[in-house]
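User: Fold both of these, please.

Assistant: Here is the first one.
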Amino acid sequence: MISSYILGFFFALTISLLVTPLVINVAERFKVMDRPDPRKVHSRYTPRWGGLGIYFGFIGSLGLLYLLNIKYFRTLLSFPLEKLVKDVPTPTIMTYLGGIIIGGTIIIFLGMIDDKKGVDALTKLLTQIIVAMVVLQYGIKIIGVTNPFSGNYIRFPIIVSTIITAIWIIGFVNSVNLIDGMDGLAAGIVGITAITFFIVTIFQIDMQGSVAITKGLKLVALLSACLVGSVLGFLRYNFNPARIFMGDTGSMFLGFMLGTLTIIGILKTTAAIALVIPIIVFGVPILDAGFAIIRRLFNKQPIMKADKGHFHHILLNLGWSPRRVVITMYCISAVLGVIAIILTISKG
């Protein structure tokens, strides 16, 4: 089991390291470049589409694990999630993975188009809703939550489950997108978040009474390890001074991945703090996104309109260097991650 996590991480890291330079060349050839403007921090034309390096690192690692016939991975994917119903195919862990791959691929294409020629806010939102509906069909949904005060499990009606799942996924997608404003910022924070998800999930595995939940957690742990590897490989070229930006291609994909991983794993556990853990871990982007919405509503600006009021902009205006800002926000995210891990262990 542990060897699968390690292999997944190193496969993703290696592929991302190798593919990202190729993406730089492709982005330059197709003129998918981020132009400097007064709102942005960088001062030179920089290739976008960096999210493709992350995507191929993630997908490629899973493909290698499967093709190399890693026994643990194939056995995990074949585990049935529900009892067999006559004439109805039994969904397996592979069903979850299929939903993630399909939904993630749609998000990637949306991001590529947006990075190349721009996509209006309404089209983006509608596509994100479609992606949420797609993964819902593959069983990735928030069906309920444990009451942190009484410990009772509250099961949602189907319509409520659908709405909450869509809002959850779209919220994560746009939170990463909003925080992606400096070299290495979004990639580093997502990497720290994914590491925390991995550790929290590992601790949760032995605390569950349901085998199905346990198997789902094992999938989340493996996917988190692959996500960390692919992000770190990309960060090699994205840290200040960046040679490439992840663009909406990468930010939306990473947000989608974090949203779906929490639904499959942490939110399905029996822990009373399950709902709180992802919010704590991803606290910096969530707070930044929340303040951005409030700020734009107060200023009577469109919610999706970019501005220079984000946390990193404020620190830059105080005279901090870009690297100092990014590293400081890494440290804050790491501290929040440690808090989430301690809560998981203490409340387990």
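And the second sequence with its predicted structure:
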Amino acid sequence: MHPLLKAHIEKKEFDHGYLMVGNLLASRELSLEIAKIILNYDKLETHPDFFYQKYELFGIDDAKKLIYKASQTPLLEDKKVFIIETLSFSIESANALLKTLEEPFSGTHFFIIVSSADVIIPTLRSRLTLIDNRDRDKVSLDKEKKDFYTKFLKDLPNKRLDSVAHLLKDRQKAIEFLNELEVVLLEKMRGENAESAAKSLEEIQKNKNLLFSPSASAKMVLEHLALTLPQC
């Protein structure tokens, strides 16, 4: 499971919207698992405040129906979960969802499942917490890499900048670097630096989202994180 989602489960605090990118089956299974936790209900198909639908194209009429459902008061407790799996969005439907995601209805959580973040306009993408499920299960670290990332987290900003200097022009390597750093931080959440590690995970995820936008540079993201992540 993605480190950030593990952190949210452990804290029982969930964002209003997630963008699940990569393997569609893995994203679907993960979204359903989190939905059960949020709603505290195993048989989702019988829950009146759960909605799941697959689309080839998520259009404006689909968006209007979804927004209407989201605006209704929950029938059971105080939570509602919407899972949308689609191959693409129309510009009109993406824009229609913007306001709902900028000012979400209380207790409402969205999971948008796509194969690539590129199918969503940047403004909508920026309103969602990105969960990258591409080869997530393959992220494993040997002792040498764990030691490197542990040292990176303890280092002063100038040392961290030196450590990421070779990644500043390679977006894909920057994403891999942050994926591996998340693995180490997740382990630290079980130790005495749990609070700092959780803050670092959230900051990394927020900034890693930028790497999926063509207008953002790996240099900008990595330098920001090197300078701002708490030492832990």
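The mean pLDDT is 88.
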